[in-house]
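Submission checklist for the structure archive. All mandatory fields must be present; incomplete records are returned to the submitter.

[x] Identifier: ATP-dependent protease ATPase subunit HslU
[x] Organism: Kolteria novifilia
[x] Residue count: 479
[x] Sequence attached
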Amino acid sequence: MQELTPREIVASLDRYIVGQAEAKRAVAIAVRNRWRRQRLSEEMRKEVTPKNIIMIGPTGVGKTEIARRLASLCDAPFCKVEATKYTEVGYHGRDVESVIRDLVEAAWRLVREQERVRVEEEANQRANDRLLDLLLPNTADEFDSVGQEESDLEVTLADESDPETFDAYSKVRQARSEERRQLAEKHLRTRDRLRAKLEAGDLEDRRVTLKVDQKQVPVQIFSAMGMEQMDVDLQHMFDRIMPREGKSRELSVKEARKVLVEQEIENLIDREAVGEKAIALAEESGVVFIDEIDKVCGPSSSSGNPDVSRQGVQRDLLPIVEGTTVQTRYGNVHTEHILFIAAGAFHVSKPSDLMPELQGRFPIRVELKDLGQDDFARILREPKNSITRQYRELLATEGIDVEIQENAIDALAEIAHQVNKQTQNIGARRLHTIMERLLEDLSFDAPEMKEEKVVVDADYVREKLDAISQDEDLSKFIL
């Protein structure tokens, strides 16, 4: 995990997310506490458990975006899931334990990438050596032919005891030995010249014939009750019993190098060690973000039927958050030190509708605020890759320079806030709808346009959007 201070984490999140300082601070402290825990004594480390967080706020205010950006900041396994995907164990659908299996897969990819970086230089060297063997086949056959001639000569002269014959045989043998030495030296000189050209990139278009492993698409055998990984495990077992046969393909040196580097990386990486490191990393530094947690809230069904996708999911989630052991293909994973961050809009239900036992496992609660007109204006201006910049870059590929003036941004923010008040409040997601509607004609006509510069000001915005935004019935369907 990167040694980022809480202030640095908040500053990094500020580059992409406007407002919501309280939520950013809570997440930053939780992430930093993972780093602090790793520096405790082993005895104390076992006692310190993560303080799980639940983020409460309407849609479109930044809950999911905070999680997405946090994943790129933390050099730690991160898994984002939707609570609505899961059902109680024993029913059709994914069970909650698959969240942990997904986390371990993320940890495995992270560790494998680290191992890949470690062995990449050696893999490149090995790949280049194999390319040289393909470009310049070994002269062992020539050596063998010379050696065979010597053997034939030995058989022919074996019974000859005449000194002159023996002397002639010795001279021939010396000549053959010299011939082999010259062949070897010539081969090495040619190989060195080829290596220099290969490293200089002069042979990239040369064609070579290479055996390539055929990728096989695994057949899914089980789809429920935690058996979603059996297909891959069985495929791995079959590969060990009956190894795949490579298929000969003619590739350029550039293409062949990529294939050979991947093959050498696979040979150099110890998969078992990667699995062990992945489990340790997931247990000590793993972060699970559970979105839409409010969708599994609510009282039990009055009909008496089991509510397997709501109360059932909560019951199954409880032991995982509290701490249990989950079986994965790489080994058993203990979940007591994994950090869980849950988020939900809670329009219909309340956090208190969660099971009391589950509520107690999320001691930190953060409420995210609704976004207003000023927030929308900041979202359009401040983030590193703001929506306005995205559209400018897209249209620049058609040779059109779009200038969005400051008064246009203010007008867009005002319209977004107005439509959210009149219809359903979907937060910052409204800006995507409005921007798409604003630039729809421009995006359609861009390939045929002769103008190189288009200025978008407040008048342009009102011309395109006023009629729709002021008609409440129409805006419900279009904006």
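[x] Structure attached
Curator remark: The CA atoms of residues 398 and 447 lie 6 Å apart. The chain has three domains: 6-111+272-367, 127-271, 373-469.
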